[in-house]
Amino acid sequence: MFPQQGKAVVVAVVVSHVLLIAGKGLAGGVPAVIMFGDSTADTGNNNFIQTMARGNYPPYGRDFAGGLATGRFSNGRLSVDFVSEALGLPPAVPAYLDPNRTIHDLASGVSFASAGTGLDNVTAQILSAMTLTQQIEHLRQYKEKLRWGKGEAAANHIISQALYIFSVGTSDFLHNYFVFPIRGDRFSLPRYEVYLADAAAEAVRAVHRLGGRRVKFVGLPPLRAPPVGRRRCAPCTGWAVAG
Ligand SMILES: *[C@@H]1O[C@H](CO)[C@@H](O)[C@H](O)[C@H]1NC(C)=O
Ligand SMILES: *[C@@H]1O[C@H](CO)[C@@H](O)[C@H](O)[C@H]1NC(C)=O
């Protein structure tokens, strides 16, 4: 029922972009990869909230270490895990809400993402996912926990030098705009795209206010690529939303 969301495409795009910036601006090293977004970035948070959008059963996780369905909407790792590994950080990014993770586990990378969420708060409501606003509130908490656990200087270093990646937006179309009339009645497609772009800009500003400086937004894959897109996205024929 939930999308693979063109996983291979997303992996290739994210990894190549990050390696590109790793070769340039990130020469000083990245202490942590910090993720926001939807199922393309949720490494298990939805296991710990009340939602139907969970990837904690087979065949999810079939090719993950130990064949474990961790909550990732993937047979194996997500693009964020590959990005983390490519930057010399852990090969699997932990989920913020996992109660077994200490702040020390999370200091070298964390995912705040929640499968089913969108840039639009209404999208998150449809599947009871965490909104981007809630995810950024968790970043604020995380920053406090880092201060307590690691000290002020280390916390500031992690927060200012981390690579923040947003991977979100497909659900706004595939679970919201093209399915329910709530948004379609109010916005034409081009106006909805502007609304989403404004929400994206606001999310980036919120991370900046908390001290983040290296922010990357993943482009959307062609919406008709995943099976759910083929079913729901008839209006997408002939075009793909570019990131
Ligand atoms: C936390 O760790 C304990 C002991 O290893 C395990 O039994 C439990 O299932 C874990 N909880 C979660 C939510 O992973
Ligand atoms: C989502 O909700 C939060 C608070 O409830 C609000 O601050 C934020 O502006 C909303 N985002 C959008 C895109 O409407």
Which terms summarize this structure?
hydrolase activity, acting on ester bonds; disordered N terminus; 243 residues; 10 helices; 42% helix; SGNH_hydro_sf; alpha/beta; binds 2-acetamido-2-deoxy-beta-D-glucopyranose
Protein architecture, described:
There is one protein chain. By secondary structure, this protein is α/β, with parallel strands linked by helices. It has one domain. Helix content is 42%, strand content 7%. It is built from 10 helices and 4 strands, in the order H-E-H-H-E-H-H-H-E-H-H-H-E-H. A 4-stranded parallel beta sheet has the order 2-1-3-4, with helices on both faces. Helix 1 (7-23) packs parallel to helix 2 and helix 5 (132-150) packs antiparallel against helix 6. It is globular, with a radius of gyration of 17 Å. The model is unreliable at 1-10 and 238-243 (pLDDT under 50). The protein binds 2-acetamido-2-deoxy-beta-D-glucopyranose (2 copies). One 2-acetamido-2-deoxy-beta-D-glucopyranose is lined by residues 120-121, 131, 133, 199.
Topology:
Layout: H1 7-23, E1 33-37, H2 79-86, H3 103-106, E2 109-111, H4 121-126, H5 132-150, H6 152-161, E3 163-167, H7 170-177, H8 181-184, H9 189-209, E4 214-217, H10 227-232
Parallel strand pairs: 1-2, 1-3, 3-4
Helix pairs in contact: 1-2, 5-6
Bound molecules: 2-acetamido-2-deoxy-beta-D-glucopyranose (2 copies).
Pfam families: Lipase_GDSL
InterPro entries: GDSL, GDSL_lipolytic_enzyme, SGNH_hydro_sf
Protein name: GDSL esterase/lipase
